[in-house]
Specification:
This protein is an alpha/beta fold. It has 13 helices and 19 strands. It is globular, with a radius of gyration of 22 Å. The chain binds iron/sulfur cluster.
């Protein structure tokens, strides 16, 4: 029996697609092993969101060959999709496959094993009109599964290469999504995370009027699923009508990751984001008024080209006002092939570092203050794993909780009391 190992870089969509490729190899009688072990085939599912992701992808591709000089090394995914010329030159790589080729990965690998002829296949995703289905997927996770509902993005933010790697918006048919979720519910998984490249665009390519909220309403009816979590969403998705319908869906978690990127209108404009800080503020107010327990998280880019001291100060002040639970802070890194990469006034690395530190500090303060608010309150946690005698899980609004118990409580939902709060988690116990 041949062995295969996977390395996944980047986002949750890649994670889902690795699960799908894993299933295909299992169905064809391969044994899946850890990527730190010797394997006959290594699949590196690459990411290209920053130049750093490219570098990391290349490093991984070289490193796996060191584990087995005879192994078949496959580079697939977003980096392979946009930079096949760079990967072709790396002698350790035997196959370069784009995003669409992932569904036929076993055939490509077997063809190579027979012929020993290296191949580069990256079908043009920009003209792809339909969502590519993978077929049945086995989820290795026990409590939470990531479900992909769409691919592609039509937004073209000036710093982002993803539309070129993933193509235009293609939505997955609701019946396929719902049957996949019914299947995992039968397996005992209680939480689903809805993911895609731009999930706010879900349904925009359908002939019928059917969007994300319609899909969520159908998901909410599935027996066995207790929690539905949305992946990163574009703020403009949140309208009064959307929130009014969302309010009725008891399983949807009140945790929203709204990608803000900057709290300064001039910077947002250069980023080609399509909202203003004023609109964003209204959206936050809408969510906070409707859902008392809502938790908002975000992504922020610091050091975007032309971000002056004054612009950064605007961002900082805005973030202090909004008070996100957590912020993922990224130092802008130019991505070849994007508009922002050739913009004037690129920001010095030290400046980016300094701004990033300032925002991370703010984020940590917010997280701690939020967590402290929970002391004495009852919370509902879905427990996921045990580490050194402490069980870890998340509340519905995604606060990490620690519980010391000797019982096996994996995949159990329990109501407990918060007795302590740390910066990154709360401690819970029985009442
Ligand atoms: S919305 Fe912008 S940042 Fe997000 S994938 Fe699309 S282009 Fe990239």
């Amino acid at each position: 029996m041949k062995t295969v190992a996977f390395i996944t870089l980047g986002c949750k969509v890649n994670q889902y697609e690795t699960n799908a490729m894993t299933q295909q190899f299992i169905e064809n009688d391969y044994e899946v092993v850890d990527h730190t072990q010797k394997a006959d085939i290594y699949i590196v599912n690459t990411c290209t969101v920053t130049n750093m992701s490219d570098r990391k992808s290349r490093q991984m591709l070289r490193r796996v060959k060191e584990l087995n000089k005879e192994a078949v090394v496959v580079a697939c995914g977003c980096y392979a999709q946009v930079a096949k010329e760079e990967l072709e030159k790396i002698k350790e790589i035997n196959l370069v496959l784009g995003n669409n080729e992932k569904k036929d990965i076993v055939q490509y690998v077997e063809k190579y094993i027979k012929s020993k002829i290296p191949e580069v296949q990256t079908e043009d995703v920009m003209h792809q009109k339909d969502f590519v289905e993978f077929g049945d997927i086995t989820f290795t996770e026990k409590t939470r599964a990531v479900i992909k509902i769409q691919d592609g993005c039509d937004r073209f933010c000036s710093y982002c290469i993803i539309p070129y790697a993933r193509g235009r918006v293609r939505s997955r048919k609701p019946e396929h999504i719902l049957s996949e979720i019914r299947k995992i519910a039968k397996e005992g998984i209680q939480e689903v995370v809805i993911t895609g490249i731009h999930i706010a665009s879900y349904g925009k390519d359908f002939k019928k009027q059917y969007g994300l909220i319609d899909l969520l309403e159908e998901m909410n009816e599935i027996e066995g699923i207790e929690r539905i979590r949305l992946g990163s969403i574009e703020p403009l998705l949140i309208t009064e009508a959307f929130v009014n319908r969302l309010e009725k869906l008891t399983k949807v978690c009140h945790q929203f990751h709204l990608s803000l990127q900057s709290g300064c209108d001039e910077t947002l404009k250069r980023m080609n984001r399509r909202y203003t800080t004023e609109q964003f503020k209204d959206i936050v107010a809408l969510l906070r008024n409707k859902f008392e327990d809502v938790i908002l998280t975000t992504d922020i880019i610091v050091g975007f080209p032309g971000e002056s001291e004054e612009e950064f100060e605007k961002t900082y002040t805005f973030l202090k006002e909004i008070k996100f639970y957590k912020m993922h802070v990224f130092k802008y890194s130019p991505r070849k092939g994007t508009k922002a990469a050739v913009m004037p006034n690129q920001i010095d690395g030290n400046k980016k570092e300094e701004r990033s530190r300032k925002l991370i500090e703010l984020s940590n303060q917010n997280e701690k203050a939020y967590n402290q608010n929970y002391i004495g309150k009852e919370v509902e946690i879905l427990f996921e794993e045990e580490k050194n005698g402490i069980w870890q899980g998340h509340t519905k609004n995604y606060i990490l909780a620690h519980y010391k118990t000797e019982k096996n409580i994996e995949n159990r939902i329990m109501k407990l009391q918060c007795i302590e709060a740390e910066e990154e988690y709360i401690v819970v116990n029985e009442k």
